[in-house]
Amino acid sequence: MLLDMELEFSGFKHSDEYIGTHNTTDSEIGRGTFSDVYSTEILIADEKKKAAVKTLRQPLEGNEESYIQLAEVHNLRRFCHTNIVELYGISYKCDKEGTKYLQIFHGIKDGKVKIADMGVAKEVSYILGTLTGTPSTIAPEVYHGKLYGTEADIYSLGIIMWEMWYCDAAYSTKEYNFLNMNEFADCIKEGKRPTFNTGFAPPSDLKKMIETCWSSNTTVRPSAENVFVELSSWMRI
């Protein structure tokens, strides 16, 4: 798809000489539900820059999948943050298989975590009571089918912090192994959470933060800013 075309968009020029995909199987760095991502180089103002190219496996056809991909482009164009990938641009190619689509991102550096998947991002004021996400990190209000906001993300953060401390997946004990989705959701709605191993419990401040983040009461969960400030203060100690 990329080897025989020259792309020009967003003020940047990219050609197969610099796109770095002559051996795409060697440069593949990830796969998603709808697309593949490759490591590449692009030429900007006569300077080679490392980037990532995301290509769709199927052509855009005006379906839900196409909407998700285009919504991701819309969302990424609006963000400018050190931990979110910057979108260089998009390109379409029309051929016998239909319209294919790719995105090119920059800022891909070793050891630096960046958010790259914005396909299901929505305005906070428009978040519906839809059930999406990894089951173990879904907040109880989401399982209840209620409208939810950023507090649901803080709940997920609490679960993830527990997993990072214990280097284990939440709810991986045998009592949860044979539950179906509805049974597991009932456990979360009833207030069940991962347990803290007394032999390797986190420091009291971290334990308190985790428990506050995954509280069933959304009003007591901290904001993302408060979590950041608190964690940053610990790192300076």
TrEMBL record:
Residues 1-235 form the Protein kinase domain. GO terms for molecular function: ATP binding; protein kinase activity. InterPro entries: Kinase-like_dom_sf, Prot_kinase_dom, Protein_kinase_ATP_BS, Ser-Thr/Tyr_kinase_cat_dom. Keywords: ATP-binding, Nucleotide-binding. The keyword ATP-binding applies. ATP binds at residue 54. Signal peptide: none annotated. It comes from the Eukaryota. The keyword Isomerase does not apply. Pfam families: PK_Tyr_Ser-Thr, Pkinase. SUPFAM superfamilies: Protein kinase-like (PK-like). This is Protein kinase domain-containing protein. It comes from Mytilus coruscus (Sea mussel).
